[in-house]
Amino acid sequence: MNSTLRALLRPVVVPALWVHHRLLPRDKPGVVLAYLWLCFLPFFFINYTPQPFPAYWWLYASAGAIVFLVLYFRMYREIQQELPWLLGGIALLGYVFFVVPPHNGYTFIIYASAFCGFLVGSRKGLVALFTIVSLFAIEGFVLHWLFEVPYIAWTFGVFLGLIIGIANIYFGELGHKNKALKQSQEEIRRLATTAERERIARDLHDLLGHTLTLITIKAELAAKFAERDLAGAAREIREVERISRDALAQVREVVGGYRSGGLTGELSNVRVALTAVDVKLAEKVDPPKLSPLQDSVLAMVLREAVTNVIRHSGAQHCRIELENQDWQLRLLIEDDGRGGRVQEGNGLKGIRERLREVSGHLEIDSSHSGTRLTVLLPLGTSGQASGPVMA
User: Fold this and answer.
1) Cα dihedral: 198, 199, 203, 209 (round 10)
2) Helix or strand or coil: residue 312?
3) Going by fewer Cβ within 10 Å, which terminus of the chain is more open, N or C?
C-alpha cells in the first residue's frame, strides 16, 4: 500500500521539490514560512469599487504579481548586495499600483516594509522602512488631494507597514546578533582547541622527552653492568623502575588536567553559557592557587550550580564571587530567578559528596527573590599560595 501511494504521489512530489529548491535556499531553517506569508497577496486582487475590473487591469495586475513573486523569493537568498535593489523594486510596485483603482498597491508596501528586517543593522532597516513608508504617505496625500483617493487606502498601508517593519527589524537584528555570537563562539572553540593541542604537545615533549632519555641511559648502564657487576645492574634497573613510576604519576596528573579545564576553564564556559541565554553575569573572582583536587571539585560545583540557574531559575541576573577569606575559600553563586523550596536532586547530592572529599561545606538559601548557593572550602597547606591568581 505504501509503495503504491508513493508511486502515485511521485509525479507530483518530485516536480514540487524541484521548484521548491530553486525558489528557496536549502541551508536555512524556517524558509518554508515564505509560502505562508504569501497569504496576504490575494488582497492585491480584491475589488473595493462598485465597478468590475476591466480586462486590461487583470493583465497588468497579473504581470505585477509575477514580478513581485520573482523579487519576493529572491529576497530569501539574503544576498546583502542585492537586498536594497530588491526592496526598492517591491516598493516601486506598490507606488505604481497605488495610482490606479482600486489602489491596492499598499499590499506591496507592506511586504517591502516587512523585508526591511533582512538588512544587516537596525539603522539601515529603519532608514529603509521610514523612506518607503514616507514616500507612500506622500503619494497617498497627493492622490487624495488631486483625485480624492480615500485616506483609508494609504493610511492602512502606512500603519501596518510601520508595525510589521519595526517588528521584523527587531527580530532580524536579534537573529543577526545570535548568528554573530554563534560564529564568535565557534571561533573561540577553534582557537581554544588549537591552543590545547599546542599545550598537549608541549607538555608531552617536556614530560616524556627528558624521562625517556633518562630511562634509555639507565637501561644502557644496566646492560653494561650486567656483564661484570650484577649489583650495579640491579641498582640501575631499580632506578629505571622508580623513574618509570614517577613518569606514570606525572602522566596521570597531566591527563587529569586535560579531562577537566579546571576552575579557570569552567569560568570561561559559564560566561559563554549565561550570555547565550541572555543572563547578565556579575563576577568577582580572586582565588588562590588550589590543589588539583580542590580545583576539580570547585569547577564541578560551579558547573552544576550554573546549570541549575540556566535550566530551572528563569533568572535575568547571576552573580559569582570567589574570594579567599582567612585561610578559607568562599564561592558564591546567586541568581534573581524563581526560588522557594529546594528539592535536592542528584546534582546537589553530588556537590555535597565531592565537597566532603575536601572538607568543604555547602549552604543554600532560596526564596521568592532568588537562590543563593555558598561553598566554604578550607584551603590548608595544600591550597594556600603566596599570592592570588586572577581567573
Assistant:
1) 10
2) helix
3) N
pTM, entire model: 0.54
Cell of 338: 524563581
Quote the CA–CA distance of 242 and 115 in Å, as a whole number. Answer: 72
Q: What does DSSP say about strands 328-335 and 317-324: parallel, antiparallel, or unpaired?
A: antiparallel
Helix-strand-coil split of the chain, %, nearest 5:
70, 10, 20
What CATH class does 186-259 carry?
mainly alpha
> What pLDDT digit, counting tens, does each position of 234-251 carry?
877 887 787 777 777 766
Residue among 289, 259, 269 nearest 386 (CA):
289
Query: Checking phi first, is residue 278 left (phi over 0); if not, alpha (psi -120 to 50) or beta?
Result: left
CATH number, domain 262-383: 3.30.565.10
d(CA 288, CA 326): 12
Confidence of residue 391 (pLDDT cuts 50, 70, 90): very low
Residue identified by cell 588549537 is 194
Supply 278's cell numbers.
541572555
Encode 167-198 in three state secondary structure. HHHHHHHHHHHHHHHHHHHHHHHHHHHHHHHH
Tens of pLDDT, residue by residue over 72-122, are 999 988 788 889 999 999 999 999 999 887 888 999 999 999 999 988 888
**Cβ pair 103, 149 in contact under 8 A:** yes
- Long-range pairs for 87-94 at CB < 8 Å and ≥24 separation? 87/112, 87/115, 87/116, 87/118, 87/119, 87/128, 87/132, 90/115, 91/132, 91/135, 91/136, 93/64, 93/67, 93/68, 94/136, 94/157
Residue 7 CA to residue 363 CA, distance in Å, equals 66
Cell numbers standing for residue 340: 522557594
